[in-house]
Amino acid sequence: MAELTPLDEKLAEVLGLAQAAQQATKQVAGMEGAEAFKADLDRMSDQAAQTEQRTDAYIDTLEGRKTAIREKARETKSEAVDMMKTYLEGEEEALDGFEFLSMAEAGELCHWEIVQVIAFTTEDAAVKDLADWAVGVQREHVEGVRRAYLDLAAEEAKEMTSA
């Protein structure tokens, strides 16, 4: 297997996280109380698919390392999905789902910011453009998830005080 650079490894991780994010947003959308956030979750899932496609298209340009990067991406996706299953096991309420998404989306943002810095420092314009776009998307996701879990927490608090 080809030796991966630190940038290759991070690209594999963001690819795997984008793949896992599609599954996570769909799972949270099916949870109790998520109806009001379905459009946002669908948009996040679509953007995760677009992130996957854009990242994979860039990986296609890397001679001799594509297979190794994609294998690492599969491992990352598997780990992220396992973490989601563990975290959400037995949970039915959307607040729990958005709590998980808060960690997942923040992790994706962190990884993309690392890619962005490496690409800037190494003067890799194609990856920097990709990362600049993805960082913006991830910041929107983090803020959208934050709004959702705070709204759900406020609803839960109202239910507690009216009981």
Structural topology:
Elements: H1 6-29, H2 38-59, H3 66-88, H4 94-122, H5 125-162
Helix pairs in contact: 1-2, 1-3, 1-4, 2-5, 3-4, 4-5
Give a quick rundown of the structure.
The chain has 163 residues and is mostly helical. It contains five helices and no strands.
Description:
This protein is an all-alpha fold. It has a single domain (6-157), classed as Ferritin, core subunit, four-helix bundle (Ferritin, Up-down Bundle). The protein is 83% helix and 0% strand. The chain contains five helices and no strands. It has helices at residues 6-29, 38-59, 66-88, 94-122, 125-162. Helix 1 (6-29) runs antiparallel to helix 2, helix 2 (38-59) runs antiparallel to helix 5 and helix 3 packs antiparallel against helix 4 (94-122). The longest helix has 38 residues, at 125-162. 33% of the residues are buried. The mean pLDDT is 96.
Portion of residues within helices: over 70%
- CA gyration radius, whole angstroms: 17 Å
Q: State the total count of DSSP E strands.
A: 0
Number of domains: 1
What fraction strand?
under 5%
Intertermini distance:
60 Å
Top CATH class: Mainly Alpha
Low-confidence stretches: none
Class by helix and strand content? mainly alpha
